[in-house]
Prior knowledge:
Shape: globular
CATH class: Alpha Beta
Largest sheet: 6 strands, parallel
Order of helices and strands: EHEHEHEHEEHHHH
CATH topology: Rossmann fold
Amino acid sequence: SKDNEIMLKDRINIVAVGMLRKEKAFERLLQVFNLLDDKYCLYIIGEGIQREMLEENIKKLKMENRVKLLGLKENPYIYMKEAKLLLLSSLYEGFPNVILEANACGTFVIANACAGVGKEIIQNGINGYLVEENNINEFTKAIKYYSHLDYDKDRVKKTTERYNVENIVNIYKDIFLDGEKEKYENYILS
Length: 190
């Protein structure tokens, strides 16, 4: 798929995935990216009621060239696989499928430590890094540090093996076998 070609080659490309709703706290990621220089690009996959507000804030912060709202994508894994990091800024989560999905793609996750996201799913330094809850400076530092680290993608993938999740099988099919495309929005963005 040519989908991921919107990702700029000479930049540090980072993704976030989820409904554009208050509890996903994407506006916090805008604050974080405001503290990072222009070589960092953020691609947000998802749709929702906060879209207009986020668009306005992106304009206000003059970040249109490096923070992109991509809307819903039939196959978000293409982006996850290409990205250096996936960010999770949520205020709370049920079971954060998106962490497993990113990890299954071999992508390291930086997540806000919140209800539903803890040490049982993120092993610091291996498949991701947990940022102290709502600490924007620490979030920014973690992105700088881990975006320059050559982490082991296979080791990241291995962390998903302990979950008996059908979804993981589907993800692998889609990423590696380029099988028939299924509609993933239903569970990835739930």
